[in-house]
Amino acid sequence: MNKKILGIVTVIILPAMLATFIVTGCKKESAVETTAAVTTVAAETTAAPETTEKTEIEVLPAMDVNIWDWQPGENYVTAMDENIEAFKTKFPQYANINFIHTVLGGDYWSALRATLIAKEGVPDCFGILQDQADLYDYMTDMRPIIEGDAEWLAQYSHVDSPDLSTSGKDNRVTGIAIDKWVAGIYYYRDMLEKNNLSEPITVDDYIAMVPVLEKDGIKVLSMGGDGWVLSMLFTGMVQSLTKITNPAGIIKDAIDGSFKWDDPISKTALTEFKKLYDGGVFREDELTLGQFAEAIQNFQNKKSWGFYVGATWWAGSMNPDDLAAGNIGIIPAPIPTGGEPTYEQSTGQTYGIYKDIPVEKKQVVIDFLKFLSSPEAVKIYLKNNIMPAGNVPEGVEIPNSLIKESLIKIEGARWFDPHHWISDGYDVFGDELTSVLLNNKTVDEALASIQAWQDKKREK
After folding, report:
1. Which of 88, 183, 336, 449 could make an SS bond with 272 (beta carbons 3.0 to 4.6 A apart)?
2. Matching CATH number, 181-347+406-459, of 3.30.450.40, 3.40.190.10, 3.60.21.10, 3.30.559.10
3. CB atoms within 10 A of CB 279
4. Beta-strand (E) ranges in 134-290?
5. DSSP reduced 3-state for 139
6. Assigned architecture for domain 22-37+55-179+350-391
């Protein structure tokens, strides 16, 4: 029988959080379990001077709520732990809820899809990416829920905000983003000052920096031969050529067929992309890396002036002294001839709700996702070097200077979503772009291959 409050009582909550990380290959799990002994909970509101109104709050019985996601960063795990505790403190009716947060690395997408198809052991809430159409039919449509909640809606700009919506299908909102990314070049300001250089804008500007920095053994850019990085830089250069004619960006246009990767615009962008490489702007050895761990290390060790990033989570990995001094800034990717400087933004971690979630859990998860875009959660994300998707309340401190600068420069940035390509797209773009850089294919051949892949993907 549900227990209710008949008066003002003392609440005793005994939290016991267990955070474990099991690393096997590329798999990482974190379980957050909280056991709470709560008999009754009371809330007070002041109805009039010298009058206290007692409100009964129904405490839900103990139950597990399972959350799956793919983010490997420990700051994300820490932020989730802290948000769970903050949520249960703010909403004592959920004190008995046991949130189990599981983080899967490279196994995530195959494990999630297999679980959804089998309909056994399905998590109540799980991380998704933009436009993963094969997952839509497994998910709850959040649009009517959010549109009917003015407080929640106010935490974003509007119900169709890219930070909020992850589905264009049937106008559904299938996911809630908790963070967002801005793509660009992280760079050291003091290296520019030391060498009397200005911030580079064009491809030629970057090439002109090569002999100046190489005299001190410093490369212009660290890149990493990961398909994700190469594809984001290339498509960013394509988008810079279409900033005026297509301010919304060309990624979805490429998916629906209204933009072709073998378009002359793409040829210009890839030709200038190769020009960067041939001019020595980024390191040849980094093209062989499966990931760009070495590239970020080169930048952290100041072996390169800049580091191309497609995700703002790297802001937390920068040298604290450089961050405190404001020595690390962010600028747009190199602009090809005829292009316009532009920043690109995308969502990072996004959560959806399983459509067949048990009815007794559904409101718990809805309230938790709403909390994850609240001012309280935004502060927790900022403290953990995560750029939040929800609106940053006025006056809230932003401790990471690079995130603070990114939040300013992301205003008005075009929506750019590389996640449309998960996961084979990254491999295709990475392989084709690398083949051009290493002179194994011509620009036309590589773009034709990319377009053939896009056409085949659309047919599916």
Report:
1. 336
2. 3.40.190.10
3. 16
4. 176-177, 180-188, 219-222
5. strand
6. 3-Layer(aba) Sandwich (3.40)
| Cβ-based burial of 299 (10 A; exposed 0-12, middle 13-18, buried ≥19) | buried
Per-residue pLDDT of the chain (460 residues; tens, 9 = 90+): 433 332 322 232 223 322 332 333 333 344 444 333 344 455 444 444 555 555 678 889 999 999 998 866 788 899 999 999 999 999 999 999 999 999 987 778 889 999 999 999 999 999 887 556 678 789 898 888 888 898 888 887 655 565 555 555 567 788 888 888 888 899 999 999 999 999 999 999 999 999 999 999 999 998 876 677 888 888 888 888 886 566 556 777 787 788 899 999 999 999 999 999 999 998 777 776 555 678 888 899 999 999 888 777 778 888 889 999 999 999 988 999 888 887 777 777 889 999 999 999 999 999 999 999 899 999 999 999 999 988 888 888 899 999 999 888 877 666 665 545 555 777 888 889 999 999 999 999 999 999 998 888 777 6
The answer to whether 228 touches 426, Cβ cutoff 8 Å, is yes
Question: What does the alpha-carbon distance between residue 148 and residue 158 come to, in Å, rounded to a whole number?
Answer: 12
